[in-house]
Amino acid sequence: MNRNKIAGFFRGCLSVLVVLSAALPLSAQNGQAVTKSMAAAVKGLGNYTVSFRLTAEGSSAAGEYTVSGERYYMSVGDSEIYSDGKVRWEVNHFDEEVVIDRVDPSDRNLLSNPTRAFDFADDTFTSSYKGVTNQGGKQYDVIELTPRSGDTSIRNVEVTVDKSTNLPHSVSYLADGISGYIVIEVLRMGSAPSVPDSLFTPELGLLGDYEIIDFR
Fold first, then answer.
1. Sign of CA dihedral 22, 23, 27, 30
2. CB 179 within 8 A of CB 59
3. Residues in contact with 80: Cβ distance below 8 Å, sequence separation at least 6, in sequence order
4. Distance (Å, whole) CA 90 – CA 44
5. How far is the CA of 200 from the CAs of 24, 70, 73, in angstroms?
6. Which of 8, 59, 64, 214 could pair with 1 in a Cys bridge, judged by C-beta atoms 3.0 to 4.6 Å apart?
7. Element (H, E) at 13
8. How far apart are the first and last CA of the chain?
9. What is the pTM of this model?
């Protein structure tokens, strides 16, 4: 699978993860209460770092991001993404370019604004509780998500949630144009007590002749 195709899978998968996070119940009894528990669990981490792995069509890409309030830094593949909460810099080392834009505070796409990844306002999917699965000695609640609109390329969505932490464990789904399931695994999500301010802004002077594309 070529580099551009992997990048496309990654963006689509992360968008799904952001939307799905709105509907990640940990029990069958009360989805709204569970959503609040999820939000509280993430908020309780304070500054936090997430490590994840994306798998599609036999290829995998690993990534990591750190969030501090409205600021974040993400590294995935050949790209680094920085934001000070107002401005977003996407540094693509393969293409040797930097794309600069303003942050949209309403954006819930994990790739472009992971600080909002666990806001629970979307009504894009309905959810149904499918029970508990055991993996590696741990228990995960399983949620099936169904698109409310037929105008979507995503289907057969399944989410697993760690019962002990109230945090997401994995997301898998089928998508048009992709053979087999796309799987996003959250490898680690934990507090990052000490985060330097310099993490959230790039040192553009070190990038030499990179092309700067500024949409602000």
1. positive
2. no
3. 73, 74, 90, 91, 93, 202
4. 28
5. 29, 10, 6
6. 59
7. helix 3-20
8. 33
9. 0.72
Tens of each residue's pLDDT in the chain, 216 residues: 555 555 555 555 555 555 554 444 444 344 555 556 767 788 899 999 999 888 888 888 899 999 999 999 999 888 999 999 999 999 999 999 999 999 987 665 556 778 876 654 456 666 777 778 898 899 887 777 777 776 566 678 777 788 899 897 888 888 778 888 888 888 999 999 889 999 999 999 999 899 999 999
Position of tokens 């979307």? 122
Residue type at 113?
Answer: N
What SS3 class is residue 161?
strand
The SS3 call for residue 78 is: coil
